[in-house]
Amino acid sequence: MTGSGEGWLSDGLDVPGADSGLWVSGVDYIAGWREAREAADRLNRALLGAGFELSAVRAVASTNEDGCGVVRLAGWPGVVERLARLLEAREDGHGGAA
Q1: pLDDT digits (tens, 9 = 90+) for 25-37
Q2: pTM, whole model, 2 decimals?
Q3: Which of 45, 55, 51 is nearest to 9 (CA)?
Q4: How far is CA 76 from each of CA 11, 21, 41, 58, rounded to the nearest angstrom?
């Protein structure tokens, strides 16, 4: 699911400040990233199932500065708006049609 090579939606260990040497010794960033990747993969499968293209919107695994897994949603604004309408419709009980 992840790692398809789109530069603007890069997947991988994304620790804020990593370029400036802010990695904290002893923090297991990999474990947090792996947990986030599993969740991101599940969300990406759901996005595909809902008819979205992963080149337009996708979940990306990351970590925060403490090594906790984080899943970020990256996508084109118009496509994210479409996803928001879909979720809002489900919330309102309209069956999810957007």
Answers
A1: 888 889 999 999 9
A2: 0.69
A3: 55
A4: 16, 30, 19, 10
